[in-house]
Each structure stands twice: as C-alpha cells, then as structure tokens.
Amino acid sequence: MSETRWLDADEQRTWRTYLWASQLLHESLDRQLQREAAMPHAYYMILAMLSEAPGRSMTMTELAQLVRSSASRLSHAVAKLEAQGWVHRCKRPGDGRTTVATLTDEGFAALAAAAPGHVEEVRRVLFDRLTPEQVEQLHDIFGVVLANLNTTDGC
Amino acid sequence: MSETRWLDADEQRTWRTYLWASQLLHESLDRQLQREAAMPHAYYMILAMLSEAPGRSMTMTELAQLVRSSASRLSHAVAKLEAQGWVHRCKRPGDGRTTVATLTDEGFAALAAAAPGHVEEVRRVLFDRLTPEQVEQLHDIFGVVLANLNTTDGC
DNA sequence: CCGATTTAGTTGAGCGCTCAAATGTACGGC
DNA sequence: GCCGTACATTTGAGCGCTCAACTAAATCGG
Question: The domain A33-116 is classified under which CATH number: 1.10.10.10, 3.30.70.1230, 3.40.50.300, 3.30.2130.30?
Fold first, then answer.
C-alpha cells in the first residue's frame, strides 16, 4: 500500500477544467441533436458508423467496437433504432450467432437531416475556438489516452 | 441557409479520437468509483466540492454552478446522498427559498475513502501518459471550450 | 460424435439524467 | 397591503445506460 500521489495544483486545475468542459461539451451536443433530430448523440454515432460501412451493414460486434460501446448498450440502442425503422437486423445466413445490422433508407435520411446541424454544433463548441496547432495537440493527447485505455481495459 | 462547413479529414480524425477517448475515460472513472466506492462520478464531485467549501456547506444553486449541473440533476442527486446520510439539507433561516446542503461526517469519510483510488485512476487514464507540455495544452484547450460554453449557453 | 467451453447477442432490473411542470418564497410597483 | 413576477428548489415521467443473467449457436478435446 503506497502513499497516494495526489494531484498538484496544476494537475488539479487542468483536470477540473477538462472535466467541466467535456461535460458541457457533451451536453451541448446531446441537447442539440435531441432538439433538432430527436436522437441522442450515441444513436447518431451508430447511424453514422453504419452509413460508412460497405453495404451500410455491419455485425453487432463490429459495430460495438467501432462506437466503443458494450454489447448490451448497442443491443438496446439498435432495438430502439429498429423500432423507429432506421436500422434493420437479421441473422447472417450460415452463422446462427452473428447478427448483421443494416441502415435503412429512412435511417440514412434521418442521419442526413441531422448531420448539418450536428456538424455546426461541433464547430461551435470546439473547432471554431481552437487554433490549428491546438487541434493537432488535441488529437495527439487523446490519441495517447485512447491507445492507453484500449489496451489496459482489455485485460 | 448557408452551406454546411463539413469537417475536413484532420478535424474528423481529431473529433472521433477525442469522442472515443473521452467516453472511455469517463466510463473508466465511473466504473472505478462505482466498484470501489459505490458512487457515480457525479456524486463524488458533489461531495468533493462540498468538502472544500467553508463549513462544508453550500447553497443548492451555488453547488449546481460549481459542478456544472442543472438544478434538477443536483436536487435528485442530493436527495440520494441525503438518504445515504452523506449530505444534510436545511432551509436557510431568514430565506425560505434557499436550501443549504452540508457534507456530514459520514459523507466526508466516504469521500476520504474513495479519494485515493479515484486519484490513482485519474493518473492511470490521463496524467501518467502525458508530458507536462501536453498537460498545459490540455488545460489551455479546454479553458477555451469552457469559457465558450459558459458564455454562449447562458443566453 | 458428444459434452464443455467460448462466442454472439439479448433481456430485465435498477439507476441517474433530462425535460417540463409544480411548489413555495421573496420582491417590486402601485 | 396586494398582485404579478422572478427566484430557488423539488417532483415525476420517460429514457438511455450498466450490470448480471440468460439464450443459443459454434468450436474444441477426447
């Protein structure tokens, strides 16, 4: 049992700034999408990832990895999206386990309708205020975090 | 109605890296606290902010601003915390509107018990992997975002 | 082949959050 | 003093997420 290495004043300040900002950022995004497209941000991402896949189709497991979601979360989400007619699920022939989710035309239309407002919001809350250097720094910093979490959480 | 300024490849890449990383980061934090201290991260923050206030007490509105929470969210949260005996609420004498929340000794003990593990997790997921320069960059970037959102969302 | 394990996905309970509405208190104008 | 408004907080419904349990199909070892 070692002594706790507390955060120093600088780290503390940075940590809280990050925490509040990222929280507000996510809430802004979510509110905008909820207001203008009647979907939460997580659902938007599912539609977006599907739209970029060949045949607008993907296995549930692939999709879960892409959106960094648990199998459970994705299953619940896709169930709702299917009920709205935006996604369609069917078992892959030849393998009774895997399910393939497909973006429907209605789903693609909903995504296309939501996209411009969403992108504008992303610019408003983030990119419009940052210099190109800061954008690069942001990428590097969270690249490190992502690599770290992808490996350490996987064991 | 102007043309949408879509994200270019660099922005897209940065945006998704940030999104996934911040999501995983938040989930790691939340899981660790839930596992080891049986509280979500938002509740930890409420206790932490109260613990730093004079008399370990604060108005609900002040507290809400500090943790960047809606009045509703805070009210629900403090209700749970009060049921657990970690926070106590009472009306301020002389003003029947404002409620003062106070961290109890049990609440302080719970916070103290949770803190070391939480700080370690914060280090593990973030600070241990970043250079001092990156920490400073992180602070600057989200300082901008925070200032932006605090002003634009307030009107 | 057959039983045990692994893999893919779903389900249900419980909880925190959002949004809108409601409650109760203070204040400002006449 | 009284009424309308603004303020401080709470409440309840609905929803997305987590966790753990479950179903069912593929695979592997003997």
Answer: 1.10.10.10
